[in-house]
Every structure is written in C-alpha cells, then in structure tokens.
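Backbone-to-sequence.
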C-alpha cells in the first residue's frame, strides 16, 4: 500500500506476521551490504517478538554476525541490569548469544548525567562512522528500527521537546520523559536517525490506532519527522490500522 507521502505503509494480519516481516527486512538489508553493516535497534515492547525471532535458527543462521554491528536509538537512563534498559532487553533476547561483544554498542548509563552519556555515545558513533559530519550519500546506518508512542514520540524524541529540533548533535540527553517510564533518557537525534538506508517502524495492536491515525493524517509529530534518506517503511498490523485507511 503506498500513501502519498514519504513512507510506505505495509499492513500485515497480526503481531506475529509483523515480527516475521520485520525480520525478513532486516535480513534483506544485511544481505544487500557485503561490507560492515550497522543496525540501530529500538526499545519498548514492540520489537520483543522480532528480537526473539532473530534468535531462532531460521534467522540466526542467515546473519553474518562478525560483520553486523548493533546500536540502539534511545536508552532509558537506568543501569544496564535494570529491566527497563532497552539494550539489555535486546541483548538478552538475541544479541548476547550470537553477536561478538565488540559488535554490540550500548548507550552507556554508568555516567554521571544523561548529557555525559550522550557525549560518549556520539563520539562512539562518530568513530564508527569515521567522520564528524554525516554525508548524505553515505548513511550512518543500514537500518533503523523504530516504534511510536501514544503521544507521537519516537526514540526519546518527545513532542515539543528541544531534542526534536537538534540539528548539530547526534545524541542528546533528555532530563525528563513525557510518558512512562518517567526516567531520564538518552536519544539519537533526527539527523543521526534519519541517516539510514531504511527506517522501519513497527506498529501493532488496537491501542496504537489513535496515534497511528494522527501520524497517517500527517500531523507534525516526532514520528513523522523521522524519515530515512532512503526508504521509510511503516509495518502496521490490522488492529492498529485506522478504519478509513483500510483498503487504501
Ligand atoms: C523507549 C522507546 C520508544 C518506544 C515507543 C513505543 O525507550 O520507550 O525506544 O520510543 O519505541 O515508546 O513503545 P512500545 O513499543 O512499548 O509501544
């Protein structure tokens, strides 16, 4: 289904089909790049099924683990062993059993402040990328995975927060979250997230229908400003799809 805007919306029957479609897109992106691959993961509950799927033989065996690097688009400023930690969830679901430790790039949360954490992660990203400035012809990531929150936030870019307007920094600290969990965050900014060959949103469940309606109506929300310089795909299950978008 193609909407007359920057994104392609792909609808699938349910959350299980959504995880499978996302896994297949990740595998295809990895296969398309014979060199070093960079995938930026996301937190929240939406990607959990996908991460479990990537740990199964079918998908695990298709990933050349030694040349794929795993980053995270935002982090809750909690210790690495806290259940709220986004990268730890991904590590436990599939990374730790498969990826070499040096290929896993968590946002550090053992710093004094989220700002300091952001500074460190930005310098890690720049060193991985090999330049201080993003070149539009050479995206930072092969694929960036995203979710959308009830207020239209994505990563930890909350509506009307200064982080959404950041154009210089690649990573910033967010002292206060706009929705649960109310812990400080560290987030990649739009210039860094958008620097990718593919941005892939996962949206499932009827509780997402209200925000998806606003997103697809083109409202000025952070989730609508997150868009790849290449392909932007919204994978949506039937329960989340607004009535008036069905069949379009
Ligand atoms: C986070 C996320 C955030 C998330 C959305 C959707 O740290 O919470 O990275 O941006 O993707 O809030 O969350 P759910 O998948 O839990 O609905």
């Amino acid at each position: 289904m193609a909407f007359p805007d920057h994104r392609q919306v792909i609808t699938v029957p349910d959350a299980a089909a959504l995880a499978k479609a996302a896994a297949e897109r990740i595998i295809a992106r990895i296969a398309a790049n014979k060199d070093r691959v960079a995938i930026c993961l996301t937190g929240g509950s939406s990607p959990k099924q996908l991460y479990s799927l990537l740990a199964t033989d079918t998908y695990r065996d298709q990933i050349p683990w030694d040349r794929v690097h795993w980053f995270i688009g935002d982090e809750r400023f909690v210790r690495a062993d806290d259940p709220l930690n986004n990268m730890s969830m991904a590590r436990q679901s599939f990374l730790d059993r498969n990826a070499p430790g040096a290929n896993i790039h968590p946002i550090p949360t053992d710093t004094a402040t989220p700002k300091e954490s952001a500074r460190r992660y930005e310098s890690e990203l720049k060193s991985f990328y090999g330049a201080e400035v993003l070149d539009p012809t050479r995206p930072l990531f092969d694929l960036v995975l995203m979710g959308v929150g009830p207020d239209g936030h994505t990563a930890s870019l909350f509506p009307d927060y200064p982080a959404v307007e950041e154009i210089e920094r690649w990573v910033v600290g967010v002292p206060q979250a706009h929705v649960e969990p109310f812990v400080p965050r560290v987030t990649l900014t739009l210039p860094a997230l958008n620097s990718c060959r593919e941005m892939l949103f996962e949206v499932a469940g009827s509780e997402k229908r209200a925000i998806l309606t606003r997103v697809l109506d083109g409202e000025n929300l952070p989730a609508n400003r997150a868009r790849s310089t290449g392909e932007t795909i919204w994978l949506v299950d039937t329960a989340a799809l607004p009535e008036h978008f069905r069949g379009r």
